[in-house]
Amino acid sequence: MRFLWLFLLLPLVAASPHKYYVSTTDIFYKADEQQLQLVVRVFTDDLQQALRNFVDQEISLDPNNKSAAEVETILGAYFQENFVLHNASEKVVFSFVGWEYKQDKTFLYASFDNIGAPDQLAWSNSFLMEAFPDQKNIVTFHKASVKKSFLHTQDQILAQYVF
User: Bridge partners of 102?
Assistant: First the structure.
C-alpha cells in the first residue's frame, strides 16, 4: 500500500515548478596588461527577459531576428549598467568585447582596461536580478594561481578582493 501511495505522489512532486536562476562569471586579472577580462555565461531565455525589461521592447538574441550591431549595443549597455567596478580610478575604461549565442546559453565578453596595480578590487553584479528576484550570480576571480569565488544575490550584490 505504501508503494502505491508513493507511486501516486511521485508525478506530483516531479511536476512541481522549481526553476533556478544562475549565471556564472569568470574575471581574469591580467597584471601585465593592466586589464580585467570578464566572461559571463547566462541562459539565453533569462537574458532575453532581462533585456526586454531593460529596453522595454521585445528582444530576441537569435542573430537572425535583429542586426548584430543593434543587439551588441543593447548588450553592452546592459552589461555596463549591471556589472560595475567600484573604487576604480577615472582612467579605467570599460569595453564590451562581444557575445556568442549558443541556443540555450549566451556568452558575454568584456574588459576593464587601465586597471593599474590595485591593492583591492570591488565590484557589483546585478545581472538578471531585476527580472528574477531569486537570481544568483557566481563570480570566480582568477589572479595568477589564485582562484576565489563570490556569490551575488539580491541582498548581496557587492564583492571585494584584496590583493
Answer: 105
pTM: 0.85
Least confident range from 36-45, 61-70, 92-101: namely 61-70
Tell me what pLDDT residue 13 has. Answer: 47
8 A C-beta contact, residue 53 and residue 131: yes
Which cell numbers in the block locate residue 93?
575604461
Cβ atoms of 108 and 81 closer than 8 Å:
no
Cβ atoms of residues 63 and 100 within 8 Å = no
Phi, psi of 4 (to 5 degrees): -65, -45
Provide mean pLDDT across the span 116-142: 95
Model pLDDT, residue 90: 78
Question: Residue 17 has what pLDDT?
Answer: 52
Q: Which is it for strands 22-30 and 35-43: parallel, antiparallel or unpaired?
A: antiparallel
Q: CA 16 to CA 103: how far, in whole Å?
A: 25
Distance CA 73, CA 151 (A): 27
Break the chain into its structural domains and give their ranges: 21-162
Q: 3.40.50, 3.30.70, 3.40.630, 2.40.420: which CATH number matches 21-162? A: 3.30.70
